[in-house]
Amino acid sequence: MLPVCPLSSLAPGEALRVEADPPIAVFHTEDGEVFAVDDTCTHQDASLADGWLEGCEIECPLHASRFDLRTGQVDAPPAKKPVRTHRVLVEDGHIFVELSADEPNLPPGVSVAGQAATGGPL
Amino acid sequence: MRTVAVVGASLAGLSSARALRSQGFDGRLVVIGDEAHRPYDRPPLSKEFLAGKVSLPDIALEADDEELEAEWLLGVRAERLDQQGQQVVLGDGRRIRADGVVLATGASARSLPGLSALSGVHVLRTLDDALALRAELESGRRLVVIGAGFIGAEVASTAHQLGLDVTVVEAMPTPLAGPLGTEMGAVVGGLHADHGVRLLCGTGVRRVVGAERAQGVELLDGTLLQADVVLVGVGAQPNVDWLRGSALELADGVQCDSGGRTAVPHVVAVGDCAAWYDGRLGGHHRVEHWTGALDRPKRAVATLLSGDSSGPEPAPAYFWSDQYDVRIQFAGNAQLADSVRIEDGDPDERSFLAVYRRDDDAVAVLAMNQPRLFTRWRRSLAAAPVTAPVTTSATASLTAPVTATR
Ligand SMILES: Cc1cc2nc3c(=O)[nH]c(=O)nc-3n(C[C@H](O)[C@H](O)[C@H](O)COP(=O)(O)OP(=O)(O)OC[C@H]3O[C@@H](n4cnc5c(N)ncnc54)[C@H](O)[C@@H]3O)c2cc1C
Ligand code: FES
To answer: To which CATH superfamily is domain A2-98 assigned?
Structure first.
């Protein structure tokens, strides 16, 4: 469990980038729900925490791919792969994230720290 | 409508095919493209792909499991659209009969007369161009980039990263003055100097010197720049020559209303080849940016399927550019502005947001490394009511093509 912040310090409609490896984006929706996904868009290198939150959808700030925060699924291209979701727990007014054990869908050319980004064959 | 032909198999063509299916068209869908490749993404060609950080499968536009039930005719050119726009004549003599046609033939890199004969001289528009250029970008070589537009600047940045010695030459006194205005053009152009890349402004190019292979670039003031590789980045022209002789109105691109409708019934045009009427500018304007080619096809396909092109004014043009690890984002129309002000951050820190205004109304926004704030401003620009420009200065600037150069 990764402690994030007190719920009261993340206003509804706001997002927070948590430095982890890979980084995580935590969203507090207008409806009061809290979601966590990998912060890096699966299309290219952009931070979803900087995107536009509408309902349970986050729109990427770079090319406007939309992801469903509940499932990670792509609702609008150009992204082709879902973003990994993490389980969120709010306890005693504090947000915790349980990191997913699934493989992240990082964009091509981006990798978790410690691994070299590879271009692969042409 | 039983058959729709989409001409051009890149971002705008693919987005149109997707929109046709998602808007319920279940007839025959033919996509014609003269490149042999499945649709791929162009922006990485001057960035990560040119740097060798991503590969060809990474820049494919289609998802692996995407099924549009379309007939893809690739590697074949559309030569002609007949008068009524109901037949597309292909280079191999085939004729595709269609009840509806989407024109999505994009643009081609402009070159300078007399340059292309020498080896070592490149333009950058296609995957094949990128592969050819990439093969020559060896560390230690000297690259001269002609034109400090976005593509020229991105190639300069990538080549610098790859260890080349890079010089950029620009005929205008300030780079990017067209799309960004002189003040902000100078700020963005300053990124080159941050990294020791030379930027020479205000002098045109006389010729590229060399026998078979380029050896240097001679400027109009007599300066000779040594070069092993030359990139010509002087903008793009719409691919509309094949449409001459049709009943379409052609100027700088296929003239369309603000819903993509052309002068020929059942023919719409999208992406870099199309000049939609822009209510904010009060004239036709060719948007040469990725997001226009992604978004506007939805609207154009709705026009095609319903026959009705009315609707809200499309969102203000948006583009981004990545140079020297700085992310630049821009939305709106700088040419409408009478002032520009830094609202946040500091240009010297390469992290700021600037708002362009006409009187008190925001008409454009530029950001460097400020994606969150930028997203909010971009949204509010899109939400603002559209008013046509009133004074003559904006209309005067429209007499010159207002195409933002990439
Ligand atoms: C190197 C590079 C970097 C870029 N970077 C950015 C960026 O960072 N940000 C941004 O916003 N935009 C960027 N752009 C611009 C963006 O890629 C274009 O706006 C976008 O590709 C336009 O899509 P399109 O489908 O309209 O046209 P195109 O991508 O040009 O595709 C048109 C297709 O039609 C084909 N065609 C042409 N004529 C015919 C014919 N007669 N018959 C059959 N097929 C035909 C062409 O070969 C091509 O495949 C960049 C462009 C380039 C070249
Ligand atoms: S980086 Fe997110 S949509 Fe492209």
So the answer is: Rieske [2Fe-2S] iron-sulphur domain (2.102.10.10)
